[in-house]
Amino acid sequence: MSLIITDDCINCDVCEPECPNQAISMGPEIYVINPDLCTECVGHHDEPQCQIVCPVDCIPLDKNHTETREQLHAKYEHLKMALSS
């Protein structure tokens, strides 16, 4: 699954720089996560870094974008290839 930022977000700015895939950006009111770029840090870290640094625990799994660990790793590989070309 990719992750999602809930309305509990306080716009503290700590999650965005932690995302290795640049999946987090400022939305109209709070930060948002692009599910096409989110790999839950698979390929980079053992745990999602945004969840670790979030002071209000507002970054759960996005049940609307379910993916297995294998699918997340394939997405990571695809993103890595796209960035290198």
UniProtKB/TrEMBL annotation:
PROSITE patterns: 4FE4S_FER_1, 4FE4S_FER_2. InterPro entries: 4Fe4S_Fe-S-bd, 4Fe4S_Fe_S_CS, PSI_iron-sulfur_center, YfhL-like. GO terms for cellular component: cytoplasm. It comes from the Bacteria. The keyword Iron applies. Residues 1-29, 31-64 form the 4Fe-4S ferredoxin-type domain. GO terms for molecular function: 4 iron, 4 sulfur cluster binding; metal ion binding. The keyword Isomerase does not apply. Keywords: 4Fe-4S, Electron transport, Iron, Iron-sulfur, Metal-binding, Repeat, Transport. This is 4Fe-4S ferredoxin. The lineage of its organism: Bacteria, Pseudomonadati, Pseudomonadota, Betaproteobacteria, Burkholderiales.
